[in-house]
């Protein structure tokens, strides 16, 4: 009898990294957590976080790194943009039975559609889309809120500030939202500018719930900002669908509050994800592994 | 016979500060240059620059600081936003016969219309408007390119990058401009994002001439960016006119190239400035001075 094969999926972002270990028959053996693993933080740092999460998952299964030669690994990591990034990442890791590395969006899309064609659109602090068509990935947007990330929380917050300052200057209508935004950021335009000087995307994004709350009450400025953001997301949805994605998962903290603002057509394309990014990374590991007679599709009941 | 009065006008910005000295009859006596005098850099630094420029202007006239008790001073300084800023600025300076301090926009507007009602709109790296109506100033916009400064060079450059990335993602048309912008910033979206990470308003603003050049050749994306910027400036012009400014001076590095993109109505309001910000600061000094029998309006021939 051949020794067991193991499959490990890793989902690594800028703040943390998660690993999930499954047996060849799909049985969940363990999960683990590690530090940040965006490869822009450096490959040493990323691999240290990946191995931290891996060791924790192995420990939960009563296993240790001696199984590495039987471990098939799939990594979905933030910061992987080009094929070269993938090659460098794999070269910097230890020896496994096999190792695949793609962007975290690829893993999330694979997991959401269990490997079938589909697309995801992330609407959180930032925004980014990814479609998987016939095994090929297509990334769109997500270049950062200064010059991209339309429809994101950061974009919503920044637009709210812009209109709050225009309202102060009598260039745009003053509403409950524009007053509240100025009040929250110090009351005067000079205080608002001081706040902006130190603000990053996450700071702008933290204003999005205020805008959503005012929009829900019919505030005209808030409604125009939120419907504008929904229109931007819809541009991405139309594009991902035109690429060939029959369905789409809207993800991220703003997916639920923004969904009702989408057109009925866009909403009709939305589906819930079947699995998470870790399941996508596990699929990558299975796809990369040499064919195995014990391999079979993961039963949906085996998903978390 | 009373000892001579002298009038000094100072125009201070974030990079340099200029001073102009006139006799009571308007005769030009001297000019001088100093370092940055935006009061946000600190009042010590601002005053050190102001005095550097002042001493240089006095030296050109064969005078020295012993005339300070007969010197009437007007300061137009970047960074003065509130009356408190003006009071703090004056309190930190040496003893003059009298001392007025206002924002540099106030001095520029006073100089441009020789003290009559009017407005200025600055379109350079940033954008900002200022109207002077019956002696009262009204500032509008100019809160920085992250959340304001519509129609500015920085806004034009940032929009060009945004559309260059959208063109790469097949979300917007690809033109000569979008290709050139990506090529200039490293060729790949990843390189563009790297450039954006280190970019400030001046860096974005340096892309504006490329956009203008492509717009002049009919590039569709460039034309949409530039006509959008002109529309934003026109919103300011309409607002400043509605406040009561009969005419308007468009100033800054983008005023000449953007003027042809304004509507005939907006262009019909534009006039050339009669004097510069130093003349405005000199007017502030005269207005602040106790009435003087030798005082008379500055002859236009005395202007530079």
From TrEMBL, chains A, B:
<keyword id="KW-0808">Transferase</keyword>
<dbReference type="InterPro" id="IPR002731">
    <property type="entry name" value="ATPase_BadF"/>
</dbReference>
<dbReference type="GO" id="GO:0016301">
    <property type="term" value="F:kinase activity"/>
</dbReference>
<feature type="domain" description="ATPase BadF/BadG/BcrA/BcrD type">
    <location>
        <begin position="8"/>
        <end position="262"/>
    </location>
</feature>
<keyword id="KW-0418">Kinase</keyword>
<dbReference type="InterPro" id="IPR052519">
    <property type="entry name" value="Euk-type_GlcNAc_Kinase"/>
</dbReference>
<protein>
    <submittedName>
        <fullName>Glucosamine kinase</fullName>
    </submittedName>
</protein>
<dbReference type="InterPro" id="IPR043129">
    <property type="entry name" value="ATPase_NBD"/>
</dbReference>
<dbReference type="Pfam" id="PF01869">
    <property type="entry name" value="BcrAD_BadFG"/>
</dbReference>
């Amino acid at each position: 009898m051949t020794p067991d094969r193991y499959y490990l999926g890793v989902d690594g972002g800028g703040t943390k990294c998660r690993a999930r270990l499954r047996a060849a028959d799909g049985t969940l053996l363990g999960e683990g957590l590690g530090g940040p693993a965006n490869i822009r933080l450096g490959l040493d740092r990323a691999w240290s976080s990946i191995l931290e999460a891996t060791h924790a998952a192995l420990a939960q299964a009563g296993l240790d790194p001696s199984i590495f030669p039987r471990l098939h690994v799939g990594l979905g990591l933030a910061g992987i943009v080009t094929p070269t990034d993938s090659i460098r990442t794999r070269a910097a890791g230890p020896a496994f039975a096999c190792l695949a590395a793609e962007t975290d969006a690829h893993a999330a899309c694979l997991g959401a559609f269990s490997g079938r064609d589909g697309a995801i659109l992330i609407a959180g602090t930032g925004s980014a889309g990814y479609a998987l068509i016939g095994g090929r990935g297509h990334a769109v947007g997500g270049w950062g809120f200064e010059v991209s990330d339309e429809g994101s929380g950061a974009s919503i917050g920044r637009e709210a500030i812009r209109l709050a300052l225009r309202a102060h200057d009598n260039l745009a209508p003053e509403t409950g939202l524009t007053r509240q935004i100025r009040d929250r950021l110090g009351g005067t335009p000079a205080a608002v500018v001081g706040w902006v000087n130190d603000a990053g995307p996450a700071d702008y994004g933290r204003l999005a719930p205020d805008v959503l709350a005012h929009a829900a009450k019919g505030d005209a400025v808030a409604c125009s900002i939120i419907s504008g953001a929904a229109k931007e997301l819809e541009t991405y949805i139309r594009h991902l669908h035109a690429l060939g994605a029959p369905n789409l998962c809207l993800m991220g903290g703003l997916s639920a509050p923004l969904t009702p603002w989408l057109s009925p057509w866009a909403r009709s394309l939305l589906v819930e994800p079947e699995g998470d990014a870790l399941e996508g990374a596990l699929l990558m590991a299975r796809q990369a592994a040499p064919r195995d007679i014990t391999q079979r599709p993961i039963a949906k009941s085996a998903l978390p």
